[in-house]
Amino acid sequence: MGRIERDRLIAKAAVMYYEQDLRQSEIARRLGVSQPQVSRLLEQAKANGIIQFQVSVPDGLHLELEEQLEDLYGLREAHVVDTAPSNESELIRDLGRFLAHRLPSYLADAEVVGFTSWSRALRETIDALTRMRANPTSKVVEMLGDVGPPRVQHDAALQTEALAEAMGGTAHFLRVPGVVASAKDREDHLKRDQHVRDALALLDNIDVALSGIGTCEIVPPLVAGDNFFTEEQFAKARKLGAVGQVNLRFISADGTPIESELDDLVIGISLDQLKNAGRKVSVAGGTSKVPAIRGSLLGGWVDTLVTDVVTAQELVKS
After folding, report:
1. Which CATH superfamily is domain 3-47 in?
2. Confidence band (pLDDT; 50, 70, 90) for 222?
3. How far is CA 6 from its chain centroid?
4. In the chain, where are the structural domains located?
5. Which whole number is the average pLDDT over 272-280?
6. Which CATH class is domain 63-315?
7. Is the Cβ–Cβ distance between 112 and 205 less than 8 Å?
8. DSSP labels for 145-206?
9. Cβ contacts of residue 127 below 8 Å, gap of 6+?
10. pLDDT grade, residue 2 (50/70/90)?
11. Among candidates 8, 52, 4, which has minimal Cα distance to 31?
């Protein structure tokens, strides 16, 4: 077959396949060649530049920014949400609702799910979550005891129950203060409450951790000293180099744990337990949280992040 005739055959195969949507078997019949020959003709069309592909990314997607985050921090997944909120509450709502669409795929085969029930963004996620494939053996375990006033504690427990119900599993609560007055108080709670000991033991084997990322300050509706750290304790953590906290475990700018006696006051997951989780998912945004989010990513406390465009752009800056 001469070059001109072969080029003609290649072009005809390309037009039939990409413009006329014909199957390769039909193209083979019309051109009088075998189906494997059609495949080779189409490959040659690509090599010769007869077929040229151009990927047009729809508006509102930020794939390049997501790839930058994944490459820079070694993430399993990064999701950058295109949102234009007028206030922080709207930002938290938009990020939480986006995670609600992704969450069923993360939890499909999870047996133990750690959950930060007091995280505002994660609570938005659960509010927007629809029922997923039931897994009766799954367990949703709170990763921190009660914080804040009774109303906040009640709402947090309802969110834990709602997530467990959506999964078709069971909820395991930490019905003790998230922050206590002394290390002795912590030991006393653990000694007298088998349910707390059982819940904390489950945190050794988390398949998916849904963690909150926080700054080193008090954010309403939480109240200083109300099953929570005081202003003075947060100031001490900052003085030691803390830029943020994950489940009230303080971390530095490079993600290194800030070790102090404050750790002995927390009833909840340890950073060692979190590190061993199969997948570590967080949803967080806002420029005020950038140092805390960056530290969480650098320390490996998060491997799947949902955030907003502005925050993502700050995170990829050198």
Report:
1. Homeodomain-like (1.10.10.60)
2. confident
3. 52
4. 3-47, 63-315
5. 97
6. alpha beta
7. yes
8. -B-SSHHHHHHHHHHHHHHHHHHTSEEE---SBSB-SSHHHHHHHHHH-HHHHHHHHHGGG-
9. 96, 100, 162
10. low
11. 8
